[in-house]
Amino acid sequence: MLKEFKTFIARGNVLDLAVAVIIGAAFGRIVTSLTEDVLMPVIGKVFGGLDFSSYFLTLGPVPAALQGSSDYAALKKAGVPLLGYGEFITQAVNFVIVAFIIFLIVRSVNKLMPKPEVAAPVEPADVTLLREIRDELKGRPRV
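Predicted structure:
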């Protein structure tokens, strides 16, 4: 079993996958920062100071110390049940940005990769033989 595991790990695909996961996690942090720190504030400014993180619904009682608070993080930390649809919007925008960037990367790589040459289809031997017989028959004079 140990030998099989060693063979499995030694495959290039497993190592490629591990590298992809690590790079993907780092890339995810970059995109999260881009979304939260750059894009969402701009979108908020365009829509009149809209802050998506402050959009939520309380689903349970709020402690007296936090009554009237619109601080999502503080309410969540206090254990108040919240429906944070603003955070969902932020994550949805995050996803769209990641998907679009990955699309652009794949599209660029596909353009850079050489297109495989399409070989002419190989004709079966019996078809070739029949074609030669037909051509021979066409060349003979009719009796």
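Summary: The chain is about 65% helix and 5% strand.
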